[in-house]
Automatic annotation (TrEMBL):
Lineage: Bacteria, Pseudomonadati, Pseudomonadota, Alphaproteobacteria, Hyphomicrobiales
Record carries keyword Membrane: yes
Ranges where the PepSY domain occurs: 82-132
Protein name according to UniProt: PepSY-associated TM helix domain-containing protein
Keywords: Membrane, Transmembrane, Transmembrane helix
A Pfam family assignment: PepSY
Keyword NAD in record: no
Residue ranges of the TM segments: 28-52, 159-179, 205-225, 374-395, 415-442
Length: 462
């Protein structure tokens, strides 16, 4: 073989390798988008609404949640409000929620024989019942369960974990495809008009590079709620001390009940076990009014919830999770002495708990107030635009009668990087690793299957 021929062959390989890598990245970017974009659109829309949960709930349920402030400001006692709620909806009171502000109602959770748990709203000034909803039956609780896919069972929640991992892959491959390669547009500017495919390609690329950080951040901070990864990490983070932050658990009798089973709590305290009250030695219980007085004296943030003990050794649990992480707090009181048995706050969490709770708080649009809400709202809108532009771009590009999957790389060695990705994904996020392995197997076998069918000899006539 002449030197000229060898030189041409080497040049062809040099040209082919970048092309093959681009094809592989483009192909898997397509797959990631195909799997993830429907989830991202749903999560973006429901997430954008949930950012303004207090404002929307206050507007939609104003007849139940809003009250007129009286001139003297005198309020009914918590026990009187509970009595009024039980008179209107007979059953057992399980929780009292303090009004979060001067113009909001108190909420009493009542377990009724006929209707199950109800959230009963009471005017704190005159003690009159304003009405009820099913427990967690507000419009925003509905949006939240849609956002987390809880409506569709544990399997659907596992899909959230897979979608989060694929979202990270989508962003990583998208950055590679966006990276400038001598083009003059489509990096920070948009060319053409909506009638042309290049307009939607540039819109997709430019919006994607700006929103990519938020997609990764929301995917990572949403992982704690996932069914497999979130549950296992929670067990690992809390397993050494029953979920309580280091140094907080005291030498008090502990029940087998976990905090997450009796009260809405932070992710870090889901596995926390609940202490038990003393026998009381014939002493009378302090009652709800006494417990609320203790919580007020301890300085719990307004809007805290009080879980009412249902057994003789149960405790009054006061918990609050306001926008300010520093004000998060859970306090368990002995129902007879009123003594705080355990008092936990954000400052008591370990490093992992603090980092995850901070990420969750930002994810919910709480940590930085209105600015946090508006920035994430813009990110959600950009995610929808990203998905719409991807769909239009694909529709304009795809061959008629075909799905339009980007071509397979000529040099299959470029898939070695994907195999390394499988190993990393499988270690960090097991469900993501499994889904990547399945997709890689299908991607390798389907073309061979189609080729075998295409060249199979026709059946012989009998």
């Amino acid at each position: 073989m002449s030197d000229f021929t060898i030189g041409r062959a080497n040049a062809a390989v040099a040209v082919r390798s970048p092309s093959d890598l681009y094809r592989a990245v483009w192909r898997w970017h397509f797959y990631a988008g195909l799997l993830v974009l429907p989830f991202l659109v749903t999560l973006a829309i429901t997430g954008a609404l949930y950012l303004f949960r207090d404002e929307i709930d206050g507007l939609v349920h104003a007849d139940l949640k809003r009250v007129e402030i009286t001139e003297n400001g005198a309020k009914a006692t918590p026990s009187a409000m509970v009595a009024a709620a039980l008179a209107a909806y007979p059953g057992t009171a399980v929780k009292f929620t303090d009004p979060a502000s001067s113009d909001t109602s108190a909420e009493i959770t009542v377990n009724t024989p006929a209707s199950g748990k109800l959230a009963v709203y009471v005017n704190p000034y005159d003690g009159k019942v304003l009405g009820s909803l099913p427990d967690r039956g507000t419009i925003m609780w509905t949006i939240r369960t849609l956002h987390s896919l809880k409506y569709f069972g544990s399997f659907a929640r596992s899909l959230i974990e897979i979608a989060a991992g694929w979202s990270i892959l989508l962003v990583a491959t998208g950055i590679y495809l966006w990276w400038p390669r001598r083009q003059t547009g489509g990096v920070l500017s948009i060319r053409g008009t909506p009638k042309r495919r290049v307009f939607w390609r540039d819109t997709h690329a430019v919006s994607g590079i700006f929103v990519g950080f938020f997609i990764v951040f929301l995917a990572v901070t949403g992982m704690p709620w996932s069914g497999v990864w979130g549950g296992k990490v929670n067990e690992w983070a809390n397993g050494s001390n029953f979920g309580y932050p280091a140094g907080v658990r005291t030498a008090v009798p502990m029940s087998d009940e976990h905090l997450d089973h009796i009260a809405k709590t932070s992710w870090s305290l889901e596995q926390a076990r609940v202490p038990q009250s003393s026998s009381g030695d014939g002493a009378a219980a302090i009652g709800l009014d006494g417990a609320v007085a203790v919580f007020d004296r301890l300085g719990l943030h307004r809007g805290y919830a009080v879980n009412i003990p249902a057994t003789a050794d149960g405790v009054y649990t006061g918990s609050v999770y306001p926008d300010d992480l520093a004000q998060q707090r859970v306090v368990h009181l002995d129902q007879y002495s009123g003594k705080p048995l355990i008092d936990m706050s954000y400052a008591d969490y370990g490093p992992l708990g603090k980092a995850l709770e901070w990420g969750i708080n930002v994810h919910l649009g709480q940590q930085f107030g209105l600015a946090n809400q508006l920035v994430l709202l813009a990110a959600c809108i950009a995610i929808v635009l990203l998905a719409v532009s991807a769909g239009i771009m694909w529709w304009k590009r795809r061959p008629k009668g075909s799905l339009g999957v980007p071509p397979m790389p000529v040099d299959r060695r470029v898939f070695r990087g994907l195999i390394a990705l499988l190993a990393i994904g499988g270690i960090l996020f097991p469900l993501v690793g499994v889904s990547l392995a399945v997709m890689l197997a299908l991607d390798w076998t389907y073309p061979r299957f189609r080729q075998a069918i295409r060249f199979a000899p026709p059946a012989a006539d009998v």
